[in-house]
Specification:
Elements lengths: L1 H39 L18 E2 L1 E9 L4 E9 L5 E4 L2 H5 L6 E3 L5 E3 L2 H11 L19 E6 L6 E5 L2 H19 L9 H15 L13 H21 L7 H118 L3 H11 L10 H7 L7 H4 L6 H29 L5 H51 L20 H26 L17 H4 L8 H13 L8 E3 L34 H5 L21 H9 L10 H21 L6 H15 L36 E3 L7
Parallel strand pairs: 1-9, 9-10
Antiparallel strand pairs: 2-3, 2-8, 3-4, 4-5, 6-7, 7-8
Length: 768
């Protein structure tokens, strides 16, 4: 059975080669567009708010403790999780192991994952992925949770990760953080790469269209290697499931577990291959770039003239069919689609403004009694990272979750609204950060020469300026988002309708292109441009009409001169180090040197009154009187409503009247379950997969007439071994993620001899 399995592998290797051909073609086209834009120039709408570089420098998002389920040992174990500026989740044995600088036990890259908070939702997804293997909560021992508050990271191909906490408040906070990790990791293609990114996205789109797949794609998540791995698994995964799942032996839970381990091993092997192949492909294109760039700059005028000539011919052929399609199948639906997009998006941006207003008013109030530089710095330091506080931004993100495109999914081949939801949420975070950064710069500029009541008035003036600028930029960003979303929905539908009749006629237009220019002018791209231009006017008019009517607080486009606020544009792009200035002031007053800064944490951990630091889930905050978290300071009667549960019996534990040690007693009940495992967990992972493979081989040997899955299983065994050698690489804040870290790989703790990064916990704003 090796033959058939390796035949599948060969087919997908051939698919990678076919994608490589698309990528090389689109790379030359993207380079042409980039150089042409550079030479001819183009006008962008002048934004009112400032944008800062590297906002998360020397910051961490969150760290704390919870319980993790280890599939290999079938035990729950306490873990210390650290979420740094890359949004990768690092797992440690304990907070002490992290503070000592030991290597993490594993790293989870959340690209392509979904963060779940209920077993019912998880089992529903599990049933959908294994339609012939139905799961029930009561009959799945490895899914039993020691509390009523699970947290699950689910992936269609990679390993699932199971966590739990003891209170609903902790669950909500962790869920918001996990969702933010997924949101950031999915947004993995850098917009700063003006050639490589459009070349990749266009090649991917054309490749999928050649296979008959039009419209949005949910698994375009992560960096290039991860996206290509998802592309391969989209076809390979169902084939392997049909070959392997029917031959799995054992109880229901064991079969599910075996299949998930095999799927994860195959996915990691595919990811390793796509990473290597894409790096080689990108290197080939980069080596050729200087020659192409030189040819473009030499013959740009001739290339543009040739393209316009070919475009005119194709437009004359295509336009009558396009106009008929637009009139009958597109125009009647544009306004309804736009309305469906505008409602939740505008609610989300309005919520961003409300949160920003409340926080700025709080700063203004706090500076009325004490407007010293030190106090102002403390208050500003707390709101500096407001945009990256997932708990405080959660109410904004939830507004966008209401987006409903039902009815369009089948007509326009929209797989789900998640693509648009996550994009809008990323834009909300960017606008919040731009507004906070602009406010910081204005206040910092006003610190000198103002005091007392005058400074309070200055703060209020800065607040009013920022809110007005936010309103304008919010309108501009939303209108651009609406236009792009409408194009993403409508263009694939039109291409699907037009391609059967138009695509066979396109090759004859290649004869009109000079051979020297054929790398930069592709008839397929020109065809799509003609279709896009034909419907863009209707989309622009629909969005403009909404702005003229001031619907959802949209503004009409207006020209904003760069000197409209000259003082603002003279300010810097770097983050102001408020904490450093505060420490500098204190250090001068104390006559000593300020200690080295530690990496600051944006989100604070929960600690309920009377509850000890459960499994090291909280860090001390020395010298910081932060704004209280949500529900902090609530009465004991309120806290008693959040009852921990018994991890064995799955029943609430009633609090005895007047018993102050009930939390400790609950911990005593949990401790027997939290067994310390001495065996190396990486070896257990490999042995677990090998055990599943052995069971499958035994089952196959019972039926010697069928040998198809044997090759697949042996290959899976190889995958499990090779996948353990992947290593992370650097992630920058532009959105690239480490493709080797989307699954947990456990290693022995070893001291790090380089830099040890400590973490201070900072409470920066209100949780909502």
């Amino acid at each position: 059975q090796y033959h058939d399995f390796h035949l599948n592998t060969f087919r997908h290797t051939h698919a990678d080669m076919e994608f490589g051909r698309f990528y090389e073609q689109q790379y030359a086209v993207a380079l042409f567009n980039s150089v042409r834009y550079e030479i001819e120039g183009g006008g962008n709408t002048q934004t009112q708010l400032l944008h800062r570089k590297d906002p998360l420098k020397n910051k961490s998002i969150f760290s704390g403790g919870l319980f993790q389920y280890l599939e290999e040992s079938k035990k729950w174990r306490s873990r210390f999780l650290y979420v740094g500026d890359s949004y990768n989740i690092s797992l440690y044995e304990s907070k002490a192991a992290h503070d000592r600088g030991l290597h993490s036990k594993g790293v989870i890259n959340c690209a392509g994952y979904r963060a779940l908070t209920s077993m019912e939702e998880y089992l529903g997804l599990l049933n959908n992925s294994l339609s012939d293997t139905k799961a029930k909560a009561a009959s799945a021992p490895f899914l039993k949770c020691p509390s009523q508050f699970p947290l699950i990271l689910w992936h269609p191909y990679a390993r699932h990760h199971y966590f739990c906490v003891m209170t609903e408040k902790e669950q909500k906070k962790w869920h918001a953080i996990f969702q933010d990790c997924v949101r950031h990791s999915n947004n993995g293609l850098s917009e700063e790469c003006k050639v490589a990114t459009p070349a990749f996205t266009d090649a991917l789109r054309l490749y999928r269209q050649a296979k008959g797949h039009y419209g949005t794609w949910d698994m375009m998540c992560g960096n290039q290697a991860q996206i290509l791995a998802n592309l391969v698994m989209e076809t390979l995964h169902p084939e392997l499931k049909n070959l392997i799942v029917p031959r799995l032996k054992g109880k229901l839970q064991q079969r599910q577990r075996d299949w998930m381990l095999i799927s994860d091993a195959v996915y990691r092997q595919v990811l390793s291959q796509t990473k290597t192949q894409h790096e080689a492909l990108a290197q080939v294109c980069e080596v050729e770039r200087p020659r192409l760039d030189s040819a473009l700059r030499t013959d740009m005028d001739q290339i543009v003239t040739s393209k316009e000539h070919v475009s005119g011919k194709i437009r004359a052929f295509v336009l009558p069919r396009v106009e008929q399609l637009v009139r009958s199948k597109v125009q009647p639906y544009i306004h309804s689609i736009l309305e469906a997009l505008m409602e939740p998006t505008s609610r989300g941006f309005s919520e961003v403004r409300d949160i920003l207003f409340r926080e700025l008013v709080e700063v203004s109030k706090n500076t009325m009694n004490d407007s010293s530089s030190e106090k102002v710095g403390e208050h500003m330091d707390k709101i500096s990272m407001l945009a990256f506080h997932p708990v405080k931004m959660q109410s904004c993100y939830e507004k966008m979750e209401a987006l409903n495109l039902e009815g369009l999914q089948q007509r326009c081949d929209v797989s789900s609204p998640s693509v648009f939801i996550q994009r809008a949420q990323i834009l909300m975070r960017q606008q919040m950060d731009n507004a906070v950064h602009t406010f910081e710069q204005l206040v910092h500029q006003s610190l000198d020469g103002h005091s007392g009541e005058d400074f309070c008035k200055t703060i209020q003036r800065c607040q009013d300026r920022v809110l007005k600028k936010y309103d304008y930029d919010s309108s501009t960003v939303r209108k651009k988002f609406f236009r792009e979303a409408l194009l993403q929905i409508i263009i694939p539908y039109m291409l699907k309708q037009l391609s059967p009749s138009c695509s066979p006629e396109l090759p004859k237009y290649k004869e009109l292109i000079f051979e020297d220019f054929s790398r930069f002018i592709l008839v397929e791209n020109i065809f799509e441009e003609v279709v896009l231009q034909s419907v863009s006017k209707d989309i622009m008019m629909a969005v403009k009409e909404a702005a003229v009517q001031r619907r959802h607080n949209l503004y009409r486009d207006s020209m904003v001169l760069t000197n409209s606020d000259p003082n603002l544009h003279l300010l810097g792009e770097d983050t102001i180090d408020w904490a450093g200035q505060i420490r500098g002031v204190k250090g001068e007053r104390q006559g000593g040197e300020v200690a080295n800064r530690k990496r600051r944490q944006i989100v604070s951990m929960i600690q309920l009154d009377g509850m000890p630091l459960l499994y090291e889930s909280c860090q001390e905050v020395p010298g910081v009187d932060g704004i209280p978290e949500e529900n902090e300071g609530q009465t004991e009667q309120d806290l008693e409503t959040e009852k921990p549960v018994n991890p064995i019996q799955q029943e609430p534990i009633e609090k005895e009247p007047g018993s102050p040690d009930s939390i400790s007693e609950i911990r005593d009940l949990i401790n027997p379950v939290l067994e310390v495992i001495e065996k190396d967990e990486e070896e257990r992972c490999v042995s677990a997969i090998e055990s599943a493979i052995q069971q499958i081989e035994i089952a196959i040997q019972e039926d010697p007439s069928e040998n198809l899955s044997e090759g697949a299983i042996d290959s899976d065994g190889e995958f499990a071994q090779t996948s353990t050698n992947s290593s992370p690489f650097h992630h920058d804040d532009s959105g690239f993620q480490s493709p080797a870290n989307e699954n947990v790989e456990e290693v022995e703790p070893q001291p790090i001899t380089d830099e040890v990064v400590d973490t201070d916990q900072v409470i920066s704003a209100h949780d909502v």
